[in-house]
Amino acid sequence: MDMLHDYGIPTVIFSSTELHNADERGRLLTGYVSHRADLAAERRSNQSLEKLDMLGKKTATAQRIRITFPQLPGVFFGTGDLFSALTLAYLERDGPMPDLKKVFYKVQCTMQSVLRRTIKHAESLRADPNCPLPYSACYELRLIQSAMDILSPPECSSVTVMDV
Q1: Number of domains in the chain
Q2: 115-138: string of b/e by CB count within 10 Å (b at 16+)?
Q3: Which BP terms from GO are recorded (predicted)?
């Protein structure tokens, strides 16, 4: 992540990795976020705000968080687009100094809600022997049906966010 920050990228996000096996929530995915406020401010103002140490190297501390959440069954289409849209919306809503833990908790709670609604719908379609839809069509995200969850993210106990 630091290598990407060295290129001037203020926020680095790994949305989901399989670094944790499982716990009482089942199989887990883990996301990581690293944010450098100095690079974000520099990008907004188009001027260098870097601080140099005695050796001439940049000194700045990145805020880093880890998010763990259940891996849900199914092959979904559009999750990356939804994750990106939610992330941008919540980061923008929080302004220049976002509370990353709050932002990514909301993002993942919204994602979990949309995916669970999608799974429920897909299972009902697949239970119907006369359903003409291919398997993949059953797992298209239920975005319209999830509008209220997108606008007002639900609380969810299955998502954990912590500083790293």
Answers
A1: 1
A2: bbbbbebbeeeeeeeeeeeeeeeb
A3: pyridoxal 5'-phosphate salvage
User: What pLDDT, in 10s, does the model give residues 102-146?
Assistant: 999 999 999 999 999 999 999 999 899 999 999 888 899 999 999
Amino acid of residue 33: V
Q: Which helix (H) or strand (E) holds 22?
A: strand 22-23
CATH of the domain at 117: 3.40.1190.20
Q: What's this model's pTM, rounded to 2 decimal places? A: 0.84
Q: Give the SS3 label for residue 16.
A: strand
Q: What tokens appear for 112 in the block?
A: 């979990």
| Domain that residue 56 falls in | 2-163
Q: Per residue in 31-42, pLDDT tens?
A: 999 999 888 888
